[in-house]
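Record type: monomer structure entry
Structure origin: computed from sequence
Chain ID: A
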Amino acid sequence: MADQTQRAGDSSTNIQAGSIVIQEGVSVTEVRQMALDVFRANFFQLAGEAKEIARRRAEEITEQFLRELEQQHSAALKQAQEPDFQHALFTVQREYARCGDKELGDLLVDLLVDRTKHPSRSILQIVLNESLAVAPKLTPDQLAALSVIFLFKYTIAQNIGSREALWGFLDRYVAPIAPLINPRAACYQHLEYSGCGTEGISTVPFAEIFRRNYGGLFSKGFDNAQREAKQLSIPETHAIFTKCLSDAGRLQVNGTREEVIRSEGARLGVPEDDIAKLVALYNQTRMGHDEIMEVVIQARDYMRGVYEIWKSSSMGRFTLTSVGIAIGHANLKKSAGEFTDLAIWIN
């Protein structure tokens, strides 16, 4: 205050301050108290030790949620005054208070934090609200099934350009949940009953997913005679060609999928007629289903079990709803630490 001066006229009142802080919205402390008040007012009354356990669990999950919210989306604290926010938070408190399952608690917190990031009454918010009510009805093997179906049927890892990168992707996202999946019909019947998906008639072959999404990693390559038969105008030294991953004595088209080959060919100035011929060469030299699975299983033995369950159970025939996608996505984030924004699949 020593460096501040004031001048004022007669009959005036002088006020000085070193700094002024204007606080808008609500604080974490206020949100915490509001959340616990909502829980106490709405959760059914239990007797004896059960009442104390429920209270302790509600406080635990509330603290966990507030920590995650402050780290990821602190601006959402202002939503605490909204009835829908309080209802969603109470759903998480209620379900965790009932069972105290740490894995479920982590999943619910992730879904609830994600819910705060989307505008009121958006399709994403509605789906996430519903997911908060559905996820507690599912067992770990059902959550794992949703994640595996979501990962292979609904996603493509855009940055995978080598087999090593693919194995790393599988290690991160599939290996932690592979031991949990099972082929029992009841698993998928309950998922359908819970609104997470529907069982179709035909199965998407597991190997076809690798062949379609990462076909360039499973090429048998071609020799000079095959290349010359296409009557390409570009030489074999062109950058669109690379050494075959399966046979170092042969070449292959440099690209994991058709669209990658087309875009890369255009970038490198390859004539349009040659790009069409390159795509045809790429398709003709991809491995068959059995060959692909042999390579995958040899590299990562845990994929054997995933493959067997995919083809022998309802998993390969199962189509996810928006709720199934949201829960499968959240379960992957919980086990692997991060995943691409849910809005890519639900918008």
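Annotation 1: The chain is about 55% helix and 5% strand.
Annotation 2: The first strand starts at residue 197 and ends at 199.
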